[in-house]
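Ticket #4471: structure output looks truncated?

Reporter: J.K.
Steps to reproduce: submitted the chain below (122 residues) through the standard prediction queue, then opened the result file.
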Amino acid sequence: MRISVLIIEDSIYSADLNVRTLKKTGLEVNHRVVASGKAMLSALHEKKWDLILSDNSMPNFEALRALKLRNSVDKSIPFIIVSEQITSEEVLAAFSSGCDGFVPKKNLPQINNLVKKLLNIP
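Returned output as attached by the reporter:
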């Protein structure tokens, strides 16, 4: 199955690790990496994404702002926070705003089961 993933991340290494982890499930992953609100909005208006993965610890952008942008354009796109630097309060705020999942970077392989569940992949 082919999926399109919008990755909100300022580290190309981390973004690549996300993609490689998803590919281990047999998924074909088309992706774009953005690190700002402006770039994210542009990407959201260019095409329909199957999934959004967002880091939280970027210099000028964080997951809660990314989630608000997603909500303003298309609330139906599953949104997963993939981050190490996030407080429990931020995670709770994200879930109350429509976040679909949180995976700490140190437990990245857990993302595969979550993605399969969110996208109804057997």
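Triage note (M.O.): checked the attachment and the full token line is present. The helical segments are 12-23, 37-46, 63-73, 88-96, 111-118.
Status: closed, working as intended.
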